[in-house]
Amino acid sequence: MDLNQEVLKAFEDAGDAVRPGDIVEKTGADKKDVDKAIKQLKEEGKIYSPKRCFYEIVK
């Protein structure tokens, strides 16, 4: 499983808007790598930001 899929799964498990730091804790990955994955997932339309510094999976 690549990092993007791990990050997406962490968002699915959270079920609500979470901060990138929470995803770092859940995946155990480096913050920079998680930030890159979040940026890519956002560009793909799989997650969105309901408010500043929070992200949530598109339902």
Indicate the CATH class.
Answer: Mainly Alpha
Order of helices and strands: HHHEE
What average pLDDT do the residues reach? 95
Task: Categorize the overall geometry.
Answer: globular
List the uncertain runs: none
Count of β-strands? 2
Give the fraction of residues assigned to helices. Answer: 55-70%
Q: Measure the end-to-end span.
A: 22 Å
Q: Sheet with the most strands? A: 2 strands, antiparallel
Spatial order of strands in the largest sheet: 1-2
Q: How many domains? A: 1
Number of helices: 3
**Strand portion, in percent?**
5-15%
**What is the third-level CATH name, the topology?**
Arc Repressor Mutant, subunit A
The class by helix and strand makeup works out as: mainly alpha
Give me the Rg, rounded. 10 Å
Describe what you observe in this structure:
The model has no long low-confidence stretch (mean pLDDT 95). This protein has 3 helices and 2 strands; from the N terminus they run αααββ. It starts with a helix and ends with a strand. The protein has a two-stranded antiparallel sheet with strand order 1-2. It is mainly alpha-helical and 59 residues long. The radius of gyration is 10 Å and the shape is globular. A hairpin with a 7-residue loop joins strand 1 and strand 2 (56-57). It has a single domain (3-57), classed as Orthogonal Bundle (Arc Repressor Mutant, subunit A).
